[in-house]
Amino acid sequence: MQTMVVESPVNYLNVRHSVASWLLTTDHKRIGLMYGIFVTIAFMVGGIFGTMIRLELTTPQGDLMAADTYNRMFTMHGVTMVFFVLIPAVPAILGNFVMPLMIGAKDVAFPKLNLLSWYIFVTGFIFTLTAMILGGVDTGWTFYTPYSSQGSESNVLITGIGVFITGFSSILTGLNFMVTIHRMRAPGMTWFRLPLFIWALYSTSLVMVLGTPVIAITLLMLVLERGLHLGIFDPRLGGDPVLFQHLFWFYSHPAVYIMILPPMGVISEVIACFSRKSVFGYSFVAFSSLAIAVFGFLVWAHHLFVAGISPYSALIFSFLSFAVSIPSAVKTFNWTATLYKGAIWWKTPMMFALGFLGLFVIGGLTGLFLASLGLDIYLTDTYFVVAHFHYIMVGGAIMGYFAGLHYWWPKMTGRMYNDSLGKFAALLIFVGFNLTFGPQFILGYLGMPRRYHMYPPEFQVLNVLSSAGASILAVGYVLPAMYFLYSLKWGAKAGANPWKATGLEWTTQSPPLPENFAETPVVTEGAYAYSKREMKVA
Amino acid sequence: MLSELPLFPEQASSLAPEIDNLYFGVLAITSFFALVVVIFVVYFAVKYRDYTGDKVGAPVTGSMPLELGWSLIPFFISMGMFVWASIVFFHIIRAPDQTLEIYSTGKQWMWRFQHIDGQREINELHVPVGRPVKVIFTSEDVLHDLFIPAFRVKADAIPGRYSAIWFTATKTGEYHLFCAEYCGTQHSGMIGTVFVMEPDDYQAWLGGGGATAGGGTMVQRGEQLFTQLACVTCHLPDGSGRGPSLVGVFGSMVTLDNGTTLTADESYLRESIMNSQAKTVAGYQQLMPTFQGLVNEDGIASLIEYIKSLQPGAARVASAQAAP
Hints:
The structure holds 2 protein chains of 2 kinds. By secondary structure, chain A is an all-alpha fold. Chain A contains 15 helices and no strands. Chain A has a single domain, classed as Cytochrome c oxidase-like, subunit I domain (Cytochrome C Oxidase, Chain A, Up-down Bundle). In chain A, helix 2 runs antiparallel to helix 15 (460-490), helix 3 (67-103) packs across helix 13 and helix 9 (282-295) runs antiparallel to helix 10. The relative contact order of chain A is 0.12. Chain B folds into 3 domains: 11-44 and 63-94; 100-207, Immunoglobulin-like, CATH 2.60.40; 218-319, Cytochrome c-like domain (Cytochrome Bc1 Complex, Chain D, domain 2, Orthogonal Bundle), CATH 1.10.760.10. Chain B has 7 helices and 12 strands. In chain B, strand 11 (253-255) and strand 12 (261-263) form a beta hairpin. The chains are: A mainly alpha, B alpha+beta.
């Protein structure tokens, strides 16, 4: 793997230049980048909504915007971030780009279907953006009935249709990835030689294919209920409003694992590379991904402990929620053990990965408070929950995405970014994040409910702290955008393997050839065979 | 300064210390694990730092005893938390037998409360200290959630069915009452105050300004509705009418025409009034019309209180008296 790569002047970026060559491309790498553009737009849009929320909450009165506007802000923040950032970020951008490279394939199994997935994603995004431009939606991203089906006067229909459409993008991507991982592995790339990112993507794909149809059906029922008053969720027509919550969370809890499993895979890659070691307990990390994907389907009703479900079913869902925490704990311990006796190279991707560990540990462990029945009754629907899921989704998923983006950026663009600025951004994000969401745990235990436009004055100091943290966080997110753009033109040439990493994606040139490899690679060793290298052991 | 930066909520119910102990227990366990991971990560990252990027790590690839240890030990600890939290949960949801019952209805964007003796209030709730209180509530429109942080209690208000919270207030004072389930534009304005009073003050309040003139107690209002809506023509007390007798029905086991049995609680009575087609008592025909739209939530609560008052001991239905 240490052989010199013969550089070809042709790569996937410069092979063709026309706009049509991008819009009609079937190259997984180009499609990954095209997702990247829309996810970045969505991240900025969602970030602006989040900023507005934090600005409004600096004072107890509702003085910056009207209550109705505030409600639309947090709804659109949630819808944009969940469906158009967190779910696609790692699988659709990084997964699309590196997965075929990592398994030694020329492309995914169904390249045209891959392009179709992107068009479906963009169509759904345009629908949702249209709903926002027309005035937005105010139901909360959870669309709970009967408010969404009868009460709300906002653009529920268009938003619902937008999210419904986007779901098909997930389903097709999941299908494509599963077939690709089964059928397209290079000679010698056995299942247990696969990088752990591939195991994570495979597990995620399972959830996408099995779970997403349920949210599609649920949103369709909501659209029909709202348009035609069918009486599925309306108690006056014999319907059940709580049924919506069961259906919604049957998808949306597994969706949390769609958001966090791929970043977990990224963390395995980055920690292995920058510790110069095989991931400790490879098969335990691999199978814990599958366990999370399977058990993730069995915990949805822990969102309903105060919604009038039977106390005995609450017991079962509480038990299963504790159980699903174990595979995540196993991963965390294995990552920690991977560092032991490593040769730890402090580069930007590793700083993001270590930040991920710190934030994910807090996010995961606070989940145990909410799995505890006796505490969840008090904590649910308060800021404790808001803090918890931001630690998982932003502290976990977005940190993981940034780790991966900084890790594979040289491969994608052929250029290096400024490493010191990168580390500084990781530090800013870590500090800003904790300052933003740490105080919200205390606010939650004090009893501040979520989705509140105004709040009693005794909560102000903690809210101001949180908003101050958000301004640091915002700088932390803008900084990478600047040094990444700068690197495109002025960054140093990366070469094939700037991190001296193992893995097939580093054996081809950066940016890669249009068809990835000059000749099909043959795999003879496990994913992280650092110790076989002829280098000095630390 | 400290008053401006509260870090811990007031404990004002008999349940609050139990929930707070659980909170500190879980906090201690999770903090321990968080510290262990963070300390090891930082220690390893510093101790094994390599500035060159040219070295490789030691060939350590795994350890079965470690894997088993850090799977099983956390699992058993989490099971301990599960059992502890579940015990607390059953204390939260199981109200004691003798409670002071108060009915409530959530609607966009206010809470209405109705006391057994007929007092009504909006966004204010007066309760005596030291006595178990059960609030039985529903929603008139969308989902709401009745949440009193100082008591550590919370439950969703769901249209079409009843929920309940119970608490024994331990400290007089004024406490926040929030809507905790997002319910539309003025969600954050759907807040109120719980007034916990000494029993004597509470009695004075019941007899004074809180009482609504002319309305009578809930049982009296329910009795009036029972006649107005002509329930009385079918539900004869001796069981000879077209509908079953309602004397003693509350809390009893009812057998339905499909053979299943259930306990007649508030939700069952409510459903039988509003959606009378849903369940039919064995031995009776499905003749009852629905009263959807003919009686409001306060009226249904009064009807239910009246039905509760119909006990076999009372000689005649029409003379059933309020027995608070």
